[in-house]
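Recall from the previous chapter that SMILES is a line notation for molecules. Here it describes S-adenosylmethionine.
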Amino acid sequence: MNSFHIRDFFDKFDPHTNLIFWISMVKESLKLIPKNQEKTILDFGCGDGKFLHLYKMMDDFKEGYGVELDDKLLEAANKIKTSDMNYLKYSQEFFNSKKESFDVVYSQEVMYTIKDLKAHAKEIFAILKPDSYYFATMGSHIQNPLWSLRREEIRKDYNEEKSHYFAYDYSLDEVASMFYEAGFEVGLKRLPLDYFMVYHPKLTREFSNSLYDLTKTAEEEKMLFLFWKPYKK
Ligand SMILES: C[S@@+](CC[C@H](N)C(=O)[O-])C[C@H]1O[C@@H](n2cnc3c(N)ncnc32)[C@H](O)[C@@H]1O
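With both inputs in hand, we obtain:
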């Protein structure tokens, strides 16, 4: 489906997920990649797998992959998968078997959870076809004024084993430099938000102090990286 209304999404997806960021990331990416093409795409850190379903409402792909570390999330993703979707546990073997296989890779708010971001940049570079893109959003960076609060929450959950990922400190320039060193051309912009930040009496306060702070920081600090793997010389 190429034209859509937010109602179409809200019928299918919980608005307290990262839905609005997924929509914006796909919209921005479609300014650079051909639409409705036979693509193979990857959602790195796919959580419960809904991003690929959202993607299919906005564009199309031949094959969609999602990789995750967390078994429970993978189980949830596999429950709702369609025949053109594959959800797999992260492994180096998978990456070794997929050299120059992907037309586009996405990750929504995953990079701050990765300890060795240099290795991540290299592995994504290796699986992309030449002249292809990796789009990655990042609101969790040290320049974000809410980062210290958010980092505390995420690390607390991790230490209490309520969550399976840690929060690492990166500046946007550190990230840019690591991906540049891996061979990418690197671009950065704010992620334009097409829809509304949705209020939740508990979640909004816990994560962001207030709806005002959440909206302000999402508008100002949520970034979209563009990592372009150049043509082969
Ligand atoms: C903050 S969540 C974001 C999930 C999802 N992208 C979204 O937009 O809702 C980050 C996810 O990345 C996953 N992740 C972190 N490192 C990973 C890795 N090396 N391979 C696969 N998934 C990873 C974590 O398990 C976690 O589920």
